Amino acid sequence: MPKVPVYNIEGQQVGEIELKDEIFGIEVNEAALHQVVQMQLANKRQGTQSAKTRGEVRGGGRKPWRQKGTGRARQGSIRAPQWIKGGVVFAPKPRDYSYTLPKKLRRLAMKSALTSKVRDNELIVLDNISIEQPKTKEMFRILRNLKADRKVLMVLPEKDEIIQKSSRNIPGVKTALVNTLNVYDILNCDKFIILKDAVPKVEEVYV
C-alpha cells in the first residue's frame, strides 16, 4: 500500500496514511484516461452552433441574369454559397455531442488518475481545515503553506460553504465533493488536495 504524509494547514507533516493499492496503486492506463477525458470534453459542448444553408437565407428567388448571352458565368441565385451573403455549404446545425462509455472503463480511468497523482507526488492529504468565516486571504495562506499556488483541486468529505466561498475567488482553485470528482479535473490540476476524512469515502466509492 502506498504511504503518503498527512499535513496540517500550516504545512507541517503530522502523520502518514496508507492508501489502498486498488485505488491509488494500480498501473496507469493512459488509453482509458484519454477516452474518458475526450468523453467529458465532448459532453461539455453546448452544440448550439448554427448557420443557414442556401435554402434558408432570405431572398435569391429570382435568377440574377439570363442563362446565356451575357458573357458572365451562369447563376441561379444570389444566395448560392459563392455569393456574398449567400448560404453556407454543409452549414453546422444544433446537435448533441454527448456520449457514454462503459462504467468499468470510467472507473478504471478514475483509479488511473488518482494513481498518477500519487506517482507524481502531486497528492496532498490534509489533516483538517477549519475557517471561522469565508475569507479568501485565509484560504490563500493555507494553500501557500502547502506549496499549492497553481492549479489546485481540493476534495472535501462533505459540503462546506465556508471553504467553498473562501476558495472560489482564487484563480486556478477548485473544490469538489467525493461524488463530483471527475478524471478531467484531477488530471488538469497541479496539486490534488484531499482531506483525510474524504480518503475512505473515495476508496469506498471507487473500490
TrEMBL record:
PANTHER family: 50S RIBOSOMAL PROTEIN L4, LARGE RIBOSOMAL SUBUNIT PROTEIN UL4M. Belongs to the universal ribosomal protein uL4 family. One of the primary rRNA binding proteins, this protein initially binds near the 5'-end of the 23S rRNA. It is important during the early stages of 50S assembly. It makes multiple contacts with different domains of the 23S rRNA in the assembled 50S subunit and ribosome. Forms part of the polypeptide exit tunnel. GO terms for cellular component: ribonucleoprotein complex; ribosome. Residues 60-71 have a biased composition (Basic residues). Residues 44-76 are annotated as: Disordered. The gene is rplD. Transmembrane segments: none annotated. Coiled coil: none annotated. GO terms for biological process: translation. GO terms for molecular function: rRNA binding; structural constituent of ribosome. Part of the 50S ribosomal subunit. This is Large ribosomal subunit protein uL4. Keywords: Ribonucleoprotein, Ribosomal protein, RNA-binding, rRNA-binding. Pfam families: Ribosomal_L4 (PF00573). NCBIfam families: rplD_bact (TIGR03953). InterPro entries: Ribosomal_uL4, Ribosomal_uL4-like, Ribosomal_uL4_dom_sf.
